[in-house]
């Protein structure tokens, strides 16, 4: 009998001689199997309680076996008339049950007071059809219950612990580290496997400890080796579920809470499903219903599978008992689909599905990209943009195969607010393209479209000829991205940062070491290589971001707001660094600083939702070529005098923002003549003449195009779910 499943149950632990039998048995054995009021004495109550929800009873005429004789009748007057069949000694009772368990209709009880053990033989759930067998001693049962009650809070806490892993991953997503990793071409498979391997270490340790504890403290578990496997699989699946939750829930705490709440709710539903079914359902169908509940909820949550495994492991609800003739619970029986096999299969399939989902989202499958691609109205033809020679020429040349980066008619809207409208340009090797624009002009949105972090609603971006919409993963291999806010992991040192990114990019051995050393020296970070990234100054954090973007020598580098908030000295160091590495790459830099654009750019695009002007710095200079004349005018009389003077110079006009500054088109007045005119005016001893800067060109373009401030543009942002719903409808 040692190989037979033993059950732990409160039935025996709670059994008191004077209690009616149905009370302690309720919840484990549906009372209708045990006892029928119509078969009981007339003084018996009609039900265990006056509660109207108590199930109806069925007449039972089959015998209940007992030892010592008459023991059942002592359990209470309500069952005194049950048809009891007695045995003269405990050994005969045990032997009879052992040999005939498969055909015993109801079961029996044996209290061997001399030996201090007791046996409850319980009939199967399916009345008269599939009898089941339970064997347990009172002392062991009580011990086991005490053990389980003592440890179950810890085990449950551990079962839900993968939810904590959402914290770190969500933090990485929130601080753009994940975006930085992915947009810098890191392989999502390597990335997530790395996370999973690291996060699975506690799972392995805890599963092993739990199983060792179970083995040492009690003999009531069946198939502990298989249970260990299921605990590990559950840890892995729960971890992947937590990772997936961060795809939809942004804040770390919310992601943790959502994962934990989901698992706990599914756990409660699962248990409630079992208990309610076995208590209230028609017994003939109860097993089938529990199976349906199990296989449905297990499909939705890994916690259902591990709970099932826990129930199977202690043969609760006699789940390990198949009836029939099988004497032993063999390994092959235990891995049947109704026992451990179901949880194993479901957990493996769920792990694969969740991992695929992460990979699918992060590598940007075509289907997912299409789902994210918004608004049906963008498929309709847009009105023609006003003709601008430079913009049209740039758009026509953007798709030239010489360009490492091709932005082709890219448009992005948030609700009714168009952030970027039909942006087209190309960047050839060795070019630094500076995108300048006022606040809210769409610079960051453009960078995000180029890096694949957001999908253009219309148009495409090709990185080294790979489409960011159709082949995001391939496109990102050629990409290095330095986002607006340095996305660094504060807990890692500078060298560790570079090492991790290099490894994830596939570098190793000598190649990895020499590449990191060279990057450290190039960026000047070798002085801080062992310092935690969180302890670096803002300028050095920026350098670290740039160094990260340069790992693996990608041909296209995107930098959002390169030197914003950095002091003048480090800013110049970074410019120098960029000039050093820019030789054969295509760089796109967004900046507010015209000084920076003038210092770095070989090509400039002025952006305010649309591209307003584009060209090489020399081309733009010649197109908007003016001299600027600054007078030192201290009084309103001086200003009036300056205005009268400028009125005599052909084409000259006051610059809007400063009453003392005037611009004179170079084409209308030669420089020498301008000096001569001004020299004749003795009213102005102090004035300067300079060629117009990029800044004045920028202001001129903004003025000419009547660009409004961001806050004055109407923003009607729809909720993401309404957009997603419309996209789903459209896809279907
Ligand atoms: N996630 C978003 N949801 C809704 N609107 C957004 C979102 N991101 C940007 N926008 C809007 O898109 C427009 C362009 O924003 P973007 O951040 O690209 O401009 P920017 O030129 O980078 O501005 P800044 O120079 O101030 O960083 C703005 O009107 C902004 O409000």
Description:
Residues 405-633 form the ABC transporter domain. One of its GO terms (molecular function) is ATP binding. Belongs to the ABC transporter superfamily. ABCA family. Keywords: ATP-binding, Membrane, Nucleotide-binding, Repeat, Transmembrane, Transmembrane helix, Transport. This protein folds into four domains: 10-136, no CATH class; 140-363, no CATH class; 376-414 and 425-592, Rossmann fold; 626-691, Alpha-Beta Plaits (2-Layer Sandwich). Helix content is 48%, strand content 14%. The chain has 28 helices and 18 strands. The strands form four sheets. Strands 10-11-12-7-13-14 form a six-stranded mixed beta sheet, sandwiched between helices. Strand 8 (458-463) and strand 9 (466-467) form a beta hairpin. Helix 6 (165-174) packs parallel to helix 9, helix 9 crosses helix 10 (252-280) and helix 19 (494-504) packs across helix 20. It starts with 9 loop residues before the first helix and ends with a helix. Mean pLDDT is 74; it is low at 1-59, 123-145 and 323-327. Adenosine-5'-triphosphate is lined by residues 414, 417, 419, 437, 439-445, 710, 717.
- Name every ligand kind in the structure: adenosine-5'-triphosphate
Overall tally of structural domains: 4
Strands side by side in the biggest sheet? 10-11-12-7-13-14
Low-confidence stretches: 1-59, 123-145, 323-327
Helicity, as a percent range? 40-55%
Number of beta-strand segments: 18
Q: Would you tell me the structural class of the helices and strands?
A: alpha/beta
Largest sheet composition: 6 strands, mixed
Shape: elongated
User: What is the subunit organization of this protein?
Assistant: single chain
């Amino acid at each position: 009998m040692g190989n037979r499943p033993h059950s732990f149950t409160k039935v025996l632990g709670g059994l008191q001689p004077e209690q009616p039998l149905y009370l302690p048995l309720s919840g484990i054995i549906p009372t209708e199997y045990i006892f029928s009021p119509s078969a009981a004495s007339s003084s018996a109550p009609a039900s265990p309680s006056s509660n109207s929800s108590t199930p109806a009873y069925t007449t039972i005429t089959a015998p209940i076996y007992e030892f010592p004789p008459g023991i059942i009748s002592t359990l209470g007057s309500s069952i005194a008339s049950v048809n009891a069949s007695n045995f003269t000694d405990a050994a005969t009772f045990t032997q009879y049950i052992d040999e005939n368990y498969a055909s015993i209709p109801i079961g029996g009880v044996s209290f061997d007071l001399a030996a201090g053990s007791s046996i409850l033989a319980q009939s199967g759930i399916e009345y008269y059809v599939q009898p089941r067998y339970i064997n347990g001693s009172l002392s062991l049962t009580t011990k086991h219950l005490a053990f389980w009650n003592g440890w179950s809070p810890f085990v449950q806490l551990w079962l839900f612990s993968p939810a904590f892993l959402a914290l770190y991953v969500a933090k990485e997503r929130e601080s753009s580290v994940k975006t930085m990793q992915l947009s810098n071409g890191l392989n999502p498979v390597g990335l997530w496997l790395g996370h999973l391997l690291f996060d699975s270490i506690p799972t392995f340790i805890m599963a092993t400890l739990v199983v060792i504890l179970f083995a040492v403290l009690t003999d009531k578990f069946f198939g502990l080796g298989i249970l260990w496997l299921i605990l590990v699989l559950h840890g892995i699946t729960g971890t992947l579920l937590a990772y997936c939750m961060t795809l939809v829930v942004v804040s770390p705490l919310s992601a943790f809470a959502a994962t934990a709440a989901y698992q706990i709710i599914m756990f409660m539903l699962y248990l409630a499903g079992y208990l309610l079914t076995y208590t209230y359902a028609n017994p003939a169908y109860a097993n089938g219903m529990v199976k349906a509940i199990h296989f449905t909820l297990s499909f939705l949550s890994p916690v259902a599978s591990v709970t099932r495994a826990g129930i199977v492991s202690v043969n609760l609800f006699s789940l390990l008992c198949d009836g029939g003739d099988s004497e032993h619970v063999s390994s092959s029986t235990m891995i049947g689909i109704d026992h451990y096999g179901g949880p194993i299969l479901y957990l493996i399939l769920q792990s694969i599905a969740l991992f695929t989902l992460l990979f699918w989202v992060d590598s940007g499958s075509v289907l997912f990209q299409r789902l994210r691609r918004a608004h049906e109205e963008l498929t309709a033809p847009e009105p023609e943009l006003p003709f601008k020679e430079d913009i049209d020429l740039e758009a026509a040349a953007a798709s030239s195969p010489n360009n490492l980066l091709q932005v082709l008619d890219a448009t992005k809207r948030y609700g009714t607010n168009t952030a970027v409208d039909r942006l087209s340009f190309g960047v050839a090797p060795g070019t630094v393209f500076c995108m300048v624009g006022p606040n809210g002009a769409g610079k960051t949105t453009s960078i995000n479209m180029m890096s694949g972090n957001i999908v253009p609603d219309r148009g495409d971006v090709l990185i080294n000829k790979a489409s960011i919409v159709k082949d995001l993963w391939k496109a990102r291999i050629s990409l290095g991205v330095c986002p607006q806010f340095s996305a660094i992991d504060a807990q890692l040192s500078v060298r560790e940062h570079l090492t991790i990114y290099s490894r994830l990019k596939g570098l190793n051995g000598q190649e990895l070491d020499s590449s990191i050393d060279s990057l450290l020296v190039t960026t000047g970070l070798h002085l801080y290589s062992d310092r935690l990234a969180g302890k670096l100054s803002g300028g050095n954090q920026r350098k670290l971001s740039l160094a990260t973007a340069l790992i693996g020598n990608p041909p296209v580098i995107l930098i959002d707001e390169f030197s914003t908030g950095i002091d003048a000295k480090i800013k110049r160091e970074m410019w120098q660094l960029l000039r050093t590495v820019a030789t054969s790459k295509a760089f796109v830099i967004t900046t507010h600083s015209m000084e920076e654009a003038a210092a770095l750019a070989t090509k400039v695009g002025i952006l305010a939702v649309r591209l307003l002007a584009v060209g090489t710095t020399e081309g733009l200079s010649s197109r908007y070529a003016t001299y600027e004349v600054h007078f030192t005018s201290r009084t309103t009389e001086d200003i009036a005098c300056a205005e009268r003077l400028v009125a005599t110079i052909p084409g000259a006009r006051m610059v809007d923002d400063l009453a003392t500054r005037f611009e004179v088109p170079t084409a209308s007045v030669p420089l020498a003549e301008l000096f001569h005119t001004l020299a004749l005016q003795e009213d102005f001893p102090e004035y300067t003449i300079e060629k117009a800067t990029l800044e004045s060109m920028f202001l001129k373009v903004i003025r000419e195009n009547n660009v409004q401030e961001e806050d004055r543009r109407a923003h009607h942002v729809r909720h993401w779910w309404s957009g997603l719903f419309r996209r789903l409808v459209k896809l279907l």
